[in-house]
Amino acid sequence: MGGAAVALDYDAELMLRVKEGDGASFAVLLEKHRSSVIHFVYRMVQNQAVAEELAQEVFLRVYRSRSTYEPTAKFTTWLFRIATHLALNSLRDGKNQRYEDRLDEQTEDQPARQLADRRPSVEQSMVLEARLDEVRRAVASLPAKQRAAVLMHKYEELEYSQIARVLNCSESAVKSLLFRAYETLRARLAYMA
Amino acid sequence: MNCPLETRENAALLVSHAARELAPDMAVRLDRHVAQCAACSQFIERQQAVWEALDRWRPEPISPDFNRRLYARIEELDRQASWWHRLTSPLRPMPARHAMPIAATAMLLLAAGVLMDRSRVPAARPVQAQVEMLQPEQVEHALDDMETIRQFDRAMRSDSPDPKM
Fold first, then answer.
1. Which ipTM was obtained for this model?
2. Helical ranges in A65-143 per DSSP H
3. Minimum CA–CA partner of B74 in chain A
4. B60 and A60 in contact by Cβ < 8 A?
5. CATH of the domain spanning A121-193, picked from 1.10.10.10, 1.20.1260.100, 1.10.3720.10, 3.40.50.360
């Protein structure tokens, strides 16, 4: 928690410097949070091109809001609030084509998606690929808010209080969302153990 | 300790416990219970299996030109903002501490101008009154001028060649 508090102060301080016109501080914030924002949005919309486009919009909004920025919450809470808002809007508007749709369109001419180097055999690779697809589909099947809560909890390691502020609900509502989401995922993915 | 799986609210504690998010004293109590409860033990195993499955989902690599594209958009944003700023700066409201003295001075100047203008402008007179102000000499001069022009016109006609010739 101490480390998180220091990180909060540092990010907020950087953002206050951006507010004063320091472009270098914006570059530092971008490098620090770029990957987590893109990966979060990617797992939300399951389309890399759309995820990068939305992540660009996230950082543009951060930049545009610099003059009115006030460090009333953790910087990451604010950042993920913007990211979640954009991702949920994108899902609602159906602007993105989700990964599962692309899977359905896959033909025999197209090569299967490949995992990185550690593939001792084609069979094992196919098993791993099938399991990965199952993970993606299981996450995609969650209602959008549950999905956002799981991704922030599991991958971004945000605290319940932060997730609550991002999703604009109470901490107990977040715990309930997570419980229901994990219940669904346990039913679909626990066999992989 | 009652089994947390008896109620949904307490079952959420098991998720937090599996994520090692609970306070140490609560974690110790739950550990004791889980060691004796097959259902809770299985719940935690399955939850950990879910997290392991989620760990397999590696994100896609980020485009190498992500930053370049972002900074290009920011540059464009700044350019538009600068253009807009220049265009609207005369119309933009100033801070009150600057605007108040300027507004007060402007009001004073305006009031003074109105007062001076009122004192200078004569009362409106009918058109007939202006005609009456013409002096007889002015009328004579005008008639003389007209006669001179007429004579000049006649002289010019007599000098010109006969069109019948």
1. 0.80
2. 75-93, 99-105, 122-140
3. A60
4. no
5. 1.10.10.10
CATH architecture entry for A1-97: Orthogonal Bundle (1.10)
Q: What is the pLDDT of residue B162?
A: 46
pLDDT digits (tens, 9 = 90+) for A37-86: 999 999 999 999 999 999 999 999 999 999 999 998 899 999 999 999 99
- A92: tokens are 């609602």
Q: Which residues numbered 12-51 in B keep a CB inside 8 Å of some CB on A?
A: 12, 15-16, 19, 45-51
CB contact under 8 A, B54 and A63: no
- The whole-angstrom distance between B64's CA and the closest CA on chain A is 11
pLDDT value, residue A100: 45
Position A102 scores a pLDDT of 46
Q: What residue segments make up the domains of chain A, in order of their start? A: 1-97, 121-193
Task: With beta carbons less than 8 A apart as the criterion, state whether A40 and A80 touch.
Answer: yes
* B52·A38 Cβ contact <8 A: no
Per-residue pLDDT band for B95 (boundaries 50, 70, 90) equals low
